[in-house]
């Protein structure tokens, strides 16, 4: 099975992670989220590889993941 980087870097959970980085992150994480949104697949891969800890912090296992559901209640 071939790895499809475009699929991975544009999947629903990655998009939500980037949205959370923008919403709850500091100025750097927020700017990086904007950069990620504008980047092509090669540069998205570089961003992800360079700052994996940010994607972990705001991703499915991070503390911000369930915040949308909490805010709606």
* Total count of domains: 1
Number of helices: 6
Structural class: mainly alpha
Radius of gyration: 12 Å
What is the number of beta strands?
0
Provide the succession of SSEs. HHHHHH
Mean pLDDT metric: 85
The biggest beta sheet, please?
A: none
From the N-terminal CA to the C-terminal CA, the straight-line distance is: 41 Å
* Low-confidence region ranges: none
Strand content: under 5%
Form type: globular
> How much helix is in the residues?
over 70%
Give structural notes.
73% of the residues lie in helices and 0% in strands. It has 73 residues and is an all-alpha fold. The chain has one domain (5-61). The termini are far apart.
List the defining traits of the structure above.
73 residues, mainly alpha, 6 helices
Write a concise synopsis of the structure shown.
With 73 residues, this protein is mainly alpha-helical. The chain has six helices and no strands.
